[in-house]
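Onboarding guide, step 5: your first structure request.
Type a short instruction followed by the sequence, for example:

Predict the 3D structure of this protein.
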Amino acid sequence: MTEPSHREAELLAAHEQERPARRLGGRLGLGVRVVAGLLSAYSLVVVFRPVEALQNRMTFLAVALPLVFLCYRSGARLPWRRRSGPRPDEAGPVAGVTTAPEPAPEPAPEPAPEPAPEPAPDGVASGAPDRPTVADWLLAAAALAVLVLPLADLDAFRERGSGAALTALDVTAGLVLTLLLLEAVRRTVGRSLAVICVVFLLYAYYGGYLPIGWTIGHRGFDLAQIVSQLYTGTEGFFGVPMQVAASYIILFTVYGAVLDLSGASRFFIDLSFAAFRNSRSAPGRTVTTAGFLLGTVSGSGVATTVSLGSVAWPVLRRAGYPREPAGGILAAGGIGAILSPPTLGAAAFIIAEYLRVSYLDVLLYATVPTLLYYLGIFLAIEIDSRRFGTRAVQVDAPRAGRLLLRFGYHFSSLILIIVLMALDRSAFQAVVIATAVALALSFLDPRHRMGPRRVGRALAKGALEVLPVTAVCAAAGIIVGVITQTGLGLNLSAIIVDVAAGNLVLTTVMSGLAVMLLGLAVPVTASFIIAAVIIGPALTALGVSQAEAYMFVFYYAVLSEVSPPTALSAVAAAAITGGNTYRTMMMTWRYTLPAFLVPFAFVLTPNGQALLGQGPIGTVLLMAAVSAVAVAALALATGGITGTTERLLAAAAAVLLLFLEPVPIVAGLAVLAAAVAVHLVRSRRRDPA
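The system replies with structure tokens like these:
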């Protein structure tokens, strides 16, 4: 996983929503890496020498946004451009990201007989020149100018903004920055989020023309007022999402890069293969465990799926797994990277900021749901290993004990993060100290010592990987700023509650569907931010705590990556295994089903907060155990037993158990026992011997 192969790079370009499109080489590539490394170094220093919030966010974006225009292709089809030959700046399914050719409906499991050409010296897969155009340089210069302008005299700029006395230059700079952010988002994650941002801007400007009686109407705002909201304070471009990108996310991406380059990725894969050796379900369990461990390094569902798939698919094939179930296992294991402590996805950091709680608290919220998620996958794998007649596979890997004795130190920095936060260290300080420890421990492995060159690579890699998230977070500030300025969030929340007639169950179902639909169009981070400010208040208005509401939104935003019809992680997995894309999506959905239902439990039931680690330890353990039985019932309903009656009974038992109340629990256990009894009776009738 240290450096993706050519095929992995193609798959990531085709299916990853947040991935750099260019690999620059030569002096320009070196210069970009140096600037990116300095950005990471700046973020590390700020942890111990804090900078005023607005100044820090502006400075971070002033470096990151120009890098976006240099590292990402435009994807624009210019009429005067020649049509012959390769087009390195041509957009694929995600605008601004180079994609591999669309796979055939039923591709072979191996790479195509005629592989794509090897990367050129500058690292570009197409082999064609891939340098920024004049337009890219002009956009980068404009981004730097409009962000350095307020930094030249920040106090005076802030006073003009708070007093609504912006100069014509301020308004022009704010409008230019708005356009630049829309273009940056279009290049990095596609048109959808850019279009949504434009709709919100039009609403802010023209909303005053809506009829007075309309719930979403407002008094209207002119350009100066909109720019003041978005550009001069911490409610727009430089709001909480931007703060998260400039602090939490870049620090954790640098930490992940250090782990990766110090050999942790290889160790995690080897350990997973060594831990499960001699059973028919071992290959599936191995892949899932490896996905969980690799998630600490990548933090991306698609990236983990692709990196894991290149190693694990041959093993799954040898074990006898059909293509679609194998793809489902890969995608489910990959998406677990965003759901699993200690390095959850970017949205989890935003939860900590919104709730004003320690990141350790967010990790605690995620612990039980994560255990239930992996329990569901392991049970489904156990069932499928019997259904498909899989077999044990001998893998050339050292013994687990030997690996742990030799390379177990890679776990120490992960544990250290938790320990330091438990000792009241901030998450920022904890991850920086853990990064330093991981760097020092790398000298125990001569092959992966973090010398000056590797440290520079890690710093550059950390910053470059955070560029698309930075663009998304800054652009999401447009949506958050408009919602705050117009009061739209409370109005839409009221509409949701009114449509659901004040019914919490219906509101929750509508909220889950809305977040999933939003996630089909925009990345996880953006869909969470938008849903948190619109759907979160609708749930809290009906008595749901903020922690429960935000975690509900978080899980459904993440699960959009495995939800048909897009399901990016499943599509990437199908491209690796050569399986049918739709059937791979449905298998992934089956493996991840508990993650779709458990969030309803902690929103709808009085004891649901125990699933977030809230309440007496005895209650937490009891509710976790009941939920585990519910997950087992789901596994039976989706493939563990045959017969429509038994499956319906098992599904009903799972739903009853997830109510987490005494009477439904007893009823659920009784229904589950009935399902098992019916299954046993029918099995004996079919096989009297």
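Each response can be followed by summary notes, for example: The chain is about 70% helix and 0% strand.
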